[in-house]
């Protein structure tokens, strides 16, 4: 028996990193997973894995999100993963950077949650997991101004949904990682003027001596998606190797 047998799960940003690891972990535990992303080429790598079906969806587009929701008669777990990391202080953040970050990191979760919540409420059962970060209201981080602001908003959104719908059988939690070794992080490091120094700087703040893996975050997400966490709602689940300490 899998820990997620019989559950229907929809998630975004499943083509790589934490989303990909979570989609695979959910399916291994018996869930029927709809894995979405805007990157068809990378998303294709999930095709053929038992329990996973893929679909290209831009979760910042209301019409695409609503069409995705209409395709599902029921959803037990919604995992909002899509995100973008902007580098810089407030002085480095142009209005376009602010708007794009908020659209991907916050508005997408608003659209997805609003589209799928009615289906959950109809069955008086549902579970939303949002991807936040330790870089948020939890910890101030250098050169992560708009990113941290958006992730603080995700924590607020999570708590609001949890409070508003707790009596209707809905749970909502967020996951707050520290530094996770993902293709996105590696790409940002390589984009720096001195990639070796950027990597050294990232490693210097890892109190455990290593970065978190996407699979480790996925294990936490399996717990939150399962009935093992039935009494857990409105929380920030921190997985940062003690970075915040």
Automatic annotation (TrEMBL):
SUPFAM superfamilies: NAD(P)-binding Rossmann-fold domains
Example GO molecular function: 4-oxoproline reductase activity
Similarity remark: Belongs to the short-chain dehydrogenases/reductases (SDR) family.
Signal peptide: none
Gene Ontology annotations for the cellular component aspect, listed alphabetically: cytoplasm
UniProt organism field: Cyclopterus lumpus
Name under which the protein is recorded: Dehydrogenase/reductase SDR family member 6
Keywords of the record: Cytoplasm, Lipid metabolism, NAD, Oxidoreductase
Location relative to the cell: Cytoplasm
Gene3D superfamilies according to UniProt: NAD(P)-binding Rossmann-like Domain (3.40.50.720)
EC number: 1.1.1.104, 1.1.1.30
Pathway: Amino-acid metabolism; Siderophore biosynthesis
Location (main, coarse): cytoplasm
Top-level taxon in the UniProt lineage: Eukaryota
Quaternary assembly: Homotetramer.
Pfam families named among the record's database cross-references: adh_short_C2 (PF13561)
Catalysed reactions listed for this entry: (R)-3-hydroxybutanoate + NAD(+) = acetoacetate + NADH + H(+)
Family matches, as InterPro entries: NAD(P)-bd_dom_sf (IPR036291), Sc_DH/Rdtase_CS (IPR020904), SDR_DHRS6-like (IPR051122), SDR_fam (IPR002347)
One GO term (biological process): hemoglobin biosynthetic process
Key word GTP-binding present: no
């Amino acid at each position: 028996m899998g820990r997620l047998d019989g559950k229907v799960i929809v998630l975004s940003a499943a083509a790589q990193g934490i989303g990909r690891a979570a989609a695979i972990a959910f399916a291994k535990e018996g869930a029927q997973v709809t894995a979405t992303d805007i990157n068809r080429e990378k998303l294709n790598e999930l095709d053929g894995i038992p329990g996973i079906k893929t679909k290209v969806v831009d979760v910042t587009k209301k019409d695409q999100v609503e069409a995705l929701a209409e395709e599902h008669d029921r959803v037990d777990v919604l995992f909002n993963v899509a995100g973008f990391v902007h580098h810089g202080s407030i002085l480095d953040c142009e209005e376009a950077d602010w708007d794009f970050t908020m659209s991907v990191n916050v508005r997408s979760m608003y659209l997805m949650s609003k589209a799928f919540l009615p289906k959950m409420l109809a069955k008086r059962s549902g579970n939303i997991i949002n991807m936040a970060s330790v870089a948020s209201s939890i910890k101030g981080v250098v050169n992560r101004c708009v990113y941290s602001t958006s992730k603080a908003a995700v924590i607020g959104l999570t708590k609001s949904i949890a409070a508003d719908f707790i009596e209707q059988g809905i749970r909502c939690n967020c996951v707050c990682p520290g530094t996770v070794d993902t293709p996105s992080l590696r790409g940002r490091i390589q984009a720096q003027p001195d990639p070796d120094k950027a990597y050294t700087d990232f490693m210097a703040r890892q109190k455990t001596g290593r970065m978190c893996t996407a699979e480790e975050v996925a294990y936490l997400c399996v717990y939150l998606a399962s009935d093992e966490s039935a009494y857990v709602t409105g929380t920030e689940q921190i997985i940062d190797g003690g970075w915040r300490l």
